[in-house]
Amino acid sequence: MDFGSFLSALTLLNIALALFGVVAGTIIGSIPGLTATMAVAVLVPITFSMEPASALILLGAIYTGAIYGGAYAAILLNTPGTPSAIATTFDGYPMAKRGDGDLAVALACFASVFGGLVGALALLFLAPPLASVALAFGPVEYFWLSIFGLSLIASLSSGNLMKGLVGGAFGMLLSTVGVAEISADIRLTFGSQTMIGGFDVVGALIGLYCIPVLIDLCAVPDRHLKVEEGVQKVRIGEAARIAMKSKFNLVRSSVIGTLVGILPGAGGSVAGLVAYSEAKRTAKPEQKFGEGEPDGIIATESANNATVGGGFIPTLVLGIPGTPPDAVILGALLVQGVRTGPSLFQEGGSIVYTFIYGLLIATVLMLPAGLLIGRYAYKSIVTIPKAVLVPAVGFMTIIGTFAIRNSISDVIIMICLGVFGWVVGRFGFAASPIVLGLILGPIAEQGFVQSWTIGAATNNLTGMFFGRPISQAIVAFTLLTLLVPFMIARKQRKAELEAKA
Amino acid sequence: MNNSPVIQGRLGSLIVTAFFFIAGIVALYDTTSYSDTDSQVFPQTVAIGLILFTSISLITQFLKPSESEGFGSGIWWRRALLIVTMLLACAAMPYVGFLPAGAIAFAGGLIAAMHDRWSARTVLVYWGSGIVVMVAFFTLFKFALQVPLP
Known about the structure:
The structure holds 2 protein chains of 2 kinds.
Chain A: H1 3-9, H2 12-30, H3 36-43, H4 52-77, H5 86-97, H6 101-136, H7 139-150, H8 152-156, H9 161-175, E1 178-179, E2 186-187, H10 201-219, H11 236-245, H12 247-262, H13 267-281, H14 294-317, H15 324-336, H16 344-347, H17 349-383, H18 386-405, H19 408-425, H20 431-457, H21 461-466, H22 469-500
Chain B: H1 4-31, H2 37-63, H3 76-96, H4 98-113, H5 120-144
């Protein structure tokens, strides 16, 4: 850490690049189908002619902006703009429906900025020791981490755990459709060429979350979002007060996001889900998660933005990308001639520290930029007539899904999944457990198969799955997450019975 | 009292659960054709889990019928029009190109979601804004983001 790097980050060019990156990233991230990875990948070529530190600042700013931008569509359209914003839909859209969309957007901005700052500060002060955490995670830990994420089903199933588990298992099965990564077996396609590429997660997300909303919106003449009379601006002060009140949730979720970001391959969606699960597990009885609880947005948005700084830790220290956008940025760095690895902080210290300060500046700039864009996004969505909004969003779902793999099959699958999600949703099978299964399925499968193979080879399956300390801790947290809702429900029933008596 | 929505909800819930049960059986059968145990073990485990969960869910639904809302109110032709035109757009895309195909989906969605009376002004403004949105996104994706749209 040196003062010279701080001054280098404060040049007019770097600040301008940080602001441009945040704004461009936020806009790209808010479009369903355009992920943070795509936002970074698309803009990588323009960094080739820049100084390495400036290029990194621009890419970091785009990345952090895109992760935040995903919250807009999640809150206002019930469609996660990026997979990182999945859990933002759980409480964001209910808030928007009851007329608090402006508050939700402002809360998301505050939480994202806070989480982004925590992640960037961890990168600044703790990068080398935290990078060793990533190395302590083996396949079995990844397997249990995905199961921990799946335990969120218990809290998402709102009274019907079995239907949630059915949805989760079905989502995991969907994740296995197509060519198996390990042996190239073609699984569950039933001879269909359309299915051979499998279910793309982003396309499935768009289908399962967005299409049911469109089907419901066009079927009834009601307004799409309730508008509070007299409210003209994004409720910044109210959001700041709520965020301050939830400071423990903010800090905890940001730390979770940073730690999950460090784990290669986990990413913002897992971080958001784990943080949401923890926020719900420790919620007060009067907090109604899933029905528009501000703490749900705070947990998800702070965690997913914290993965930005967290993900850079293994990328820069070990040369192992923590998240998919980090992999793209790593490629850009190699083109620039920057060699990542343990010696980077000594040999290329000025570049790294200028970048970290730049990331901090970009995250701070996200506050005014995000609130301003959020205000216009909110006003646009509530004032657009439903007759224009529905076909416009429908068109965006088609173009966004097509853009992922340039495939019409993906668009057809997205629409069919959407109709399927709408039908099963009407009979108590929520989309979220299916999506959870779909996202965590590949991580779980890889960890499961690798652990199984090692355990079988060493003739110690039980020890492999349950004998390692980190695994034991994750299993304990999973059990806690699954059991706490039952214990709370039991306690409430007991209290009600006592009150009646 | 009309209790048909309640019956529809209970019956529909059973049918959907049965669908998942059958999906588990079919998946389990499909895994028998894989050449490698590594690609077999995970879907097999999940399929068994799915069958188990759906079985428990079916039993509990028989004992205590679930209170799902069913299809509820809403105009069916509007829902159908939206989905059919989106699928039609996918089918037409390779032949007519992305923009005209997208226009089919947009037109279907606009008619499906329009509950007010059409006037000359709404026709002009809504269709006009639709064209602007479609051309803007097409330009962004095709030329700025280099997506090879047909």
